[in-house]
Amino acid sequence: MKKGKVLFVDDELQAEQDEPHGDYMWYYVRALQDADFEVTPAIGPDEALHKLSTKEAQFDLVIIDIMMPPGKTFEKEDTFEGLRTGIFLARIFQERYSELPILVLTNVLNPQALNETQEIVNVKEVLTKPNCTPFHLAEEVKHILEQ
Amino acid sequence: MKVDSMNKLAHEFRVPVVAFRAALERLQYECRANRYTFQFDHFEELWTYCDVMKRLLLELDAVRKGIQSMPLVPKKTHFFTQIIPPAVRFVKPLLQKKKLKASNIKYQEELHKTPELYVDPGMMTQVIFNLLENSIKYSACPDDFKIKIDWNDTDSSFEIIFRDYGIGVPEGWEEKIFESGTRGPNAHKYDVAGEGFGLWFAREIILRHGGNLILRKHKNPTTFVIILPNSLRNAPPQHSQITEQIL
Lengths: 147, 247
Fold this sequence. Notes:
With 147 residues, chain A is of the alpha/beta class. Chain A contains five helices and five strands, in the order βαβαβαβαβα.
């Protein structure tokens, strides 16, 4: 039995078959799968919101990147050319799915952006990619879901 | 180069480091699971170099943007198990180069009595690394090489006391050694490489945690003290709420 269902939103999670060995973010997906989580990738806000809205989804946790293309969802918002897309997305998640925990995993090391994400109630953890290996991420997800 | 371009370049530079670490971890996992027919015995070495790259990127960011722009992500951390051992691991290539023994870095006494503190583990590892690197670079000779890391509780602070038996710091240089871009007068004499950012960066990180890094004794042993406020036992540093324009 799986330990939980995770929606993983990151624009670098391009379809694995597009490249012979997949993008490096797939190492994170594989580590979560090795830790017995069911992982659904989404490459941007449009796909993430669509997958969350389907009845059968019922995710236990969402992982989001901060820097992503805004997609149609945020095309009219000032996302600083995508530098803050994940913050906008996390706020929507909080409004629509108040019980859903969020883990932010980002390469953006800007203090203001990190502070803003930490202020969103559903955000349980903010991790920076240089400091978080794939198996470390799996441990953090496990820790959040056990709380 | 425009600041915006520099920030984007720094971001792009971080990606291969993250990718390499992720791939390395996967390779190690697969090897442990015996999914490959070959044996590979250099994981520790590769991890060390990965961490050195990560550390250099951090330092480059700090010099480029200023320490106040660096994010601080405090977590309850145990100094003597989560900070010092990885820092010692990172200096191993330098120790090998100077033919010094890692076993002469002593830090495990009365481990169980030390408290957990709300600090940024990555940043604090950098502080210990910089102090270690400094001691190693300025060590007098392999036979005398010794570093001892102790701790002390006071009414208002938790101190980490860092002693080395190297060439020492000349009188009158107590504060100058913490200035950005300053190198000690012995640097050229002992052919010590560096840009003079290590102690500056280390002190700035400690200041951002509400503490201080001081030189308490010049020589025999040269003694640096990291002073961290006792408030970090219960709460993150107030300085962590830093504001800055978005990238």
